[in-house]
Amino acid sequence: MGNRAIEVLKENGIKTTHNRILILSFLLKNVGHYSTKDIYNNVKKKYMNLNLASVYNTLTIFAEKGIIKLVTKINNMAIWDSNTSAHAHFVCRVCQKIYDLQDISYLDIDIKVGKVQSIKVTYFGICNNCLKRGKASGSN
Ligand SMILES: [Zn+2]
Ligand SMILES: [Zn+2]
Predict the structure, then answer these.
(1) pLDDT > 70 fraction of the chain, expressed in percent and rounded
(2) Are 58 and 14 in contact (CB under 8 A)?
(3) How far is the CA of 89 from the centre of ligand 2 (A)?
(4) Model confidence over 55-111: pLDDT tens digits?
(5) What's the gap in Å between 120 CA and the centre of ligand 1?
(6) Ligand 1 center from residue 99 Cα (angstroms)
(7) Distance from the alpha carbon of residue 85 to the mean position of ligand 2, in angstroms
(8) Residue 139 lies in a domain
(9) Most C-beta atoms within 10 A of its C-beta, which of 31, 69, 109, 132?
(10) Ligand closest to the CA atom of residue 98
(11) Are residues 101 and 63 in the same domain?
(12) C-alpha–C-alpha distance, residues 132 and 126, integer Å
């Protein structure tokens, strides 16, 4: 357990600490979108000696190394993605669910400009579920 996390840390020249191994293990095992708080809450179950600032710092280091991605900030809280494949996001302003836009074809860009290697696009709107529920009264 945590062996893969240790490998990834070493490959990226990041000093292996208990904190970092636990945080990365969680992200590798549970690929998806998480706020700093989500990750903090999950890892804290295993390791009480943890604070939110150090989790944020660790995630920032991971993002700088390309191990994870910073999707966006919602209410000043960073949202991270442990799926680093090239994909855009749609953030629902009502339920704050984050949708991956993995199926969008970037073929057009490939032909017109060059080979796309990574994407940092975030659309904001109201998802179909929320539109159906009619919670989305008014604009914004
Ligand atoms: Zn929604
Ligand atoms: Zn994503």
Answers:
(1) 91
(2) no
(3) 6
(4) 999 999 999 999 999 999 888 889 999 998 888 899 999 998 999 987 666 667 777
(5) 21
(6) 10
(7) 8
(8) no
(9) 69
(10) 2
(11) no
(12) 10
* Domain interval for residue 116: 88-132
72 and 100 fall within a common domain:
no
29-55 CB burial, b ≥16 within 10 A, e <16: eeeebbbbebbbebbeeeeeebeeeeb
Question: 56 CA distance to ligand 2 centroid (A)?
Answer: 18
Residue 21 lies in a domain: yes
In this structure, are 31 and 65 located in the same domain? Answer: yes
Q: How far is CA 132 from CA 91, 124, 136, 140, in A?
A: 16, 17, 9, 16
Domain boundary pick from 81, 101, 120: 81
User: Does residue 139 register a pLDDT over 60?
Assistant: no
CATH number of the CATH domain containing 10 = 1.10.10.10
What's the predicted TM-score (pTM) here?
0.82
The rounded Å distance from CA 60 to ligand 2 centre is 17
Whether residues 28 and 93 fall in one domain? no
Quick one: pLDDT at residue 136?
Answer: 47
